[in-house]
Amino acid sequence: MRRLLAVLTLPSLLTAALTACGDPDDAEEARSATTVRVLVRDINIRPVGVECAGTGPYTHLHNRSPFQVIDAAGRTLAAGALPAGRSVATFEEDLEVERVPTYCEFAVPVTVADRDAYRLVVDGHPPIALTQNDSEGPALVAVVPS
């Protein structure tokens, strides 16, 4: 009877021991919510708050463009599709006109693991460096052209 009990409990003990000694890199990393914000400095004249897209060399920045947030080693931390951009005023002062110089801003919520560096890849184009900026809540920000 003791032998039977030992044979039945041995696999469970081995499984528990192997699980406890697993590779720490396989453990789920802590992730936090942030917003990726890309400001395209295209200086178009338009109303503030309307949909927009990148212009000139940034036409790949538009609604539904596939993106990835990667770390310095090139590992993908988040992926998805960009939302439509929204025009934001270039200057803080009130110019007292309906249409003003604007930039096109894209903002997309993501959840990423903590890293020293982040980059944004949009539609296969070269990576854009992202900078952490918590002035308006947790965000990873890029301004193009820089």
Characteristics of this structure?
nine-stranded mixed beta sheet; Lipoprotein; 9 strands; 146 residues; 13% helix; mainly beta; single chain; Immunoglobulin-like
Tally of separate domains = 1
CATH class: Mainly Beta
Order of helices and strands: HEEEEEEEEE
β-strand percent reads 35-45%
Helix content: 10-25%
The CATH architecture would be: Sandwich
Strand order of the largest sheet: 2-5-6-1-9-8-7-3-4
Class by SSE composition: mainly beta
Task: Work out the radius of gyration.
Answer: 24 Å
What is the CATH topology? Immunoglobulin-like
Mean pLDDT: 84
- Unreliable spans are 1-24
- Counted by DSSP, the helix tally is 1
- The total strand number stands at 9
- What is the distance, rounded to the nearest whole angstrom, between the alpha carbons of the first and last residues? 75 Å
Note the main sheet.
9 strands, mixed
Q: How is this structure best summarized?
A:
It comes from Micromonospora krabiensis. The chain is mostly beta strands and 146 residues long.
What does this structure look like?
This protein is mostly beta strands and 146 residues long. It has one domain (31-144): Immunoglobulin-like (Sandwich). The protein is 13% helix and 45% strand. The protein has one helix and nine strands. It has one helix at 2-20; strands at 31-46, 51-52, 66-71, 76-81, 85-89, 100-113, 118-122, 128-132, 139-144. The chain has a nine-stranded mixed β-sheet with strand order 2-5-6-1-9-8-7-3-4, with no helix packed on it. A hairpin with a 4-residue loop joins strand 3 (66-71) and strand 4. It is globular, with a radius of gyration of 24 Å. It starts with a helix and ends with a strand. The relative contact order is 0.24. Residues 1-22 form the signal peptide. Keywords: Signal.
